[in-house]
Amino acid sequence: xxxxxxxxxxxxxxxxxxxxxxxxxxxxxxxxxxxxxxxxxxxxxxxxxxxxxxxxxxxxxxxxxxxxxxxxxxxxxxxxxxxxxxxxxxxxxxxxxxxxxxxxxxxxxxxxxxxxxxxxxxxxxxxxxxxxxxxxxxxxxxxxxxxxxxxxxxxxxxxxxxxxxxxxxxxx
Length: 172
Fold this sequence. Notes:
The radius of gyration is 15 Å and the shape is globular. The chain has a single domain, classed as q2cbj1_9rhob like domain (Jelly Rolls), CATH 2.60.120.620. The chain is mainly beta and about 170 residues long. Strand 3 and strand 4 (about 60) form a beta hairpin. The chain is built from 2 helices and 11 strands, in the order βαβββαβββββββ. The strands form 2 sheets. Strands 1, 2, 3, 4, 5, 6, 9 and 11 form an 8-stranded antiparallel sheet that branches. The model has no long low-confidence stretch (mean pLDDT about 90).
């Protein structure tokens, strides 16, 4: 496993706030869709095996009227990562608060081939991303994690914020 790359203060503050305000809006202006299973590897009877998602891009095309706001994010990933040659998917995730304990979802891969994922945390909370070797990366506002999403990893809920929000860009 290649060690994840962590970059703090990834985006310029003004753009980060614009992106974060859209995705984390309390004004009912951003559409969230119920995801029954965070991972196909999970226990289908687990009542916490759900999340909400918004797909900006998939199947080689924009999938959201909000896709254009992602252009600057893609540009920053291209400039600060190893380069974006081909987009595979862009989505926002909303993991609910679980007040008593952090719920760790089952390990999964995003796609069954080697590719890069950039996870941008939109808020700071006690949730995290965990990798197969046990490495945990805390959710810190404006932090990006770059890693091979063809390798096992997982995410969590949060106990100390209303929700854990992030955007994931999968690319070659």
